[in-house]
Amino acid sequence: MRTPAQLQMIVWTLIAVVVAGVGVFASVLQPPSTIKQARVARQETKIEHIDSREPASVQGPQYSATTIDDRGSQAIDFTIPCEGNSRFSKNVLQVRLSGSLCLKKKEQIASSEIRNMTNGFGATVFPTGKQDTFTTDYITLANGENRIRIQHILKSGGKVERDFVIER
Asked: Do residues 147 and 115 lie in contact, with contact meaning Cβ atoms separated by under 8 Å?
C-alpha cells in the first residue's frame, strides 16, 4: 500500500507528464509554415520518378527559394550562366550552385572542387546525368563579398577554373 505522500507525488508527476506531452503533441501536429509551403509547392510541381537511385540533387530542385522562406533570405538554387557577368547579388544565407563546363568542345568532368574563398566553406560537388554538368550542396555565404572558386579536373587531363563573386 502506498502512503498519501507517495500518491500525491504520483499524481503531480502524471500532471506534469500530461502537460508537457500535450505541448509536444500539438507541435508535432502543426508543422511550421515553411514546411506547409514546401508541401504545397511539391504538390503543385510535377515530379518525375526515376527508377535508379541517385543523389537528390541530380533530380533538380523540388521547390524554390520562396517556399523555404517568403522573403527569399534562407537559401536558393542558382544556375551559373556561361556568359556574362561574374558578379551576382543574392540576399540569402546559402546557395546551391549548378552549371556546366561552358566549353565548346565536349569534355567530361573527372572531379571538381568548389570553395567559398571568403569563409573557406568547401562544397560537396555531385555529378549529374550529363558528363559536363554539376551541382553542389548548399554553400554557406558570409556577409558582403563571397569569392567562389570552381576547379574542374577533366577526364582528358585538362583543368577548367572559374572565379566569380556573390554579394550578400
From this structure: no
Q: pTM of the predicted model, to two decimals? A: 0.56
Which position has the higher pLDDT, 36 or 126? 126
- What span, in angstroms and rounded, lies between the C-alpha atoms of 132 and 68? 29
**pLDDT attached to residue 97:** 92
Bridge partners of residue 95, in order along the sequence: 76, 139
CATH number of 34-167: 2.60.40.10
d(CA 123, CA 114) in angstroms, rounded, equals 5
Distance CA 164, CA 18 (A): 55
**SS3 string of 13-50?**
HHHHHHHHHHHHHHHHHCCCHHHHHHHHHHHHCCCCCC
